[in-house]
Amino acid sequence: MKVRVAQRKMFLAGKWVTRDQTITVTNPENNEAIATVPAATKEDMLEAVQAAKKGAVVSAKLPVFKRIEIIQRAADFIEEQQEDFAVTIALEGSKTIREARKEVARCIQTLRISAEEGRRLEGKTIPFDQSNGNENRLGYYSLFPIGIIGAITPFNDPLNLVAHKIGPAVASGNAIIVKPATVTPLSALKLAEAFSQAGLPDGILSVITGRGAEVGDTLVTHPDVRMISFTGGLETGTEIAKKAGLKKLSMELGSNSPVIVLNDANLNQAVDSTVSGAFWAAGQNCLGVQRIYVEKDVYEEFTAQFIEQTKAYRKGSKLFDSTDMGPLINEREAVRVESLIKEAVKQGATLACGGNREGAYLEPTVLTNVPPNATIAKEEIFGPVVLLFAVDSLQEAIERSNDVNYGLQAGIFTNHIQAAFEAIQSLDVGGVMVNDSSDFRIDSMPFGGVKGSGLGREGVKYAIQEMTEPKVVCFNL
């Protein structure tokens, strides 16, 4: 499919602007150029911040019903153009068209939830007379927007993860500046178009396209930006935390997600769920299944079924409905993951299936007998690779699951309620999915992790909590 190279503008404080210097957006499937976007400069980001200072005042004064109307109209705009949004996601990123359609549907839902949560910016009364001498005092607290939010988003969910920043920010009366991933800016720009068409006042939203080294530090370090909401890798998140200074940080930093399969589990369900969870979006998914710990009595049967389904996984052109998995985001990433596989095999791991690379495509890969201290067992792979381990007990599975510097989500398959609760209590993660893989999320739940997996929680209601501050009011009567 030959795609015309489109010249896209970026959204600076409500205005669509071009720049002489541009960045070419390519389709990782074939390296074909599909669009150019402005290569923003430090001066562009400073202009966006200055405009956001005014936009934050406007946003804070917007009546709640206006915020709700704007967000709902943006959702309506996307709903009317669902296939166009899905094709954009598939062309610029790694997702197949089927995966992209699901992301568009989730984006619409994220915005609808944001509108609903805008109704619930509620405070509480405070019984000041609980303390002796304050019998004549009464009061309450209310939630107020913090001002300007800087959002930095990744390539793997280029629409819905941006919606998870913009929707709550608008609902809570803030201004927001989005720096989308350099390789996948088009979906974020289409989301900005939706909000522009919905009547969002100028200055409240900017989507600044450019390279992180050029504009990212300016956004992160600017004293008028009161919060950074970042989704990405641990290394980058650590650098942002060092540079940001005294401001709020909300970070989702990836994982190395474990799933436990016990002897009494429904193996068909466990295999179906974990294969999908391992290879969705070519494994470039912070919730993706990376390590599976299977009790020894069912290990051989589980492994045979898992490998059979993995071999049946169809990789190919992203725009074909028959394709199960597309390429990684670029060949460099595919080479990186391939090298991790080869390193593990050299250290004694068994390549059960997959492992072959062609350009940015990497076969769905299963490794067994992986040494516990191998890099691929300790770090986030972010590619279509899953590791299978046999364990003697639930206790061993929990201990090995916790033995990494990540803790986003985990899964356990069992029909034993006591075993499920033991895992819930003992797994050091932000969420435990029972009889589901780690790769399960709805957009309204509190989402985030512990240890190297991040700070704070997303999910619309919980993002709004991060983006607001309580203000106490007390009357002395």
Automatic annotation (TrEMBL):
Oxidoreductase listed as a keyword: yes
Aldehyde dehydrogenase domain span: 16-473
Highest taxon of source: Bacteria
UniProt keyword terms in alphabetical order: Oxidoreductase
InterPro entries registered for this protein in UniProt: Ald_DH/histidinol_DH (IPR016161), Ald_DH_C (IPR016163), Ald_DH_N (IPR016162), Aldehyde_DH_dom (IPR015590), ALDH-related_metabolic_enz (IPR051020)
NADP listed as a keyword: no
Record field: transmembrane: none
Classification via Gene3D superfamilies: Aldehyde Dehydrogenase, Chain A, domain 1, Aldehyde Dehydrogenase, Chain A, domain 2
Secretion signal, residue range per the UniProt entry: none
Family statement drawn from the similarity comment of this UniProt entry: Belongs to the aldehyde dehydrogenase family.
The name this protein goes by in its record: Aldehyde dehydrogenase family protein
Organism annotation: Alkalihalobacterium chitinilyticum
Organismal lineage: Bacteria, Bacillati, Bacillota, Bacilli, Bacillales
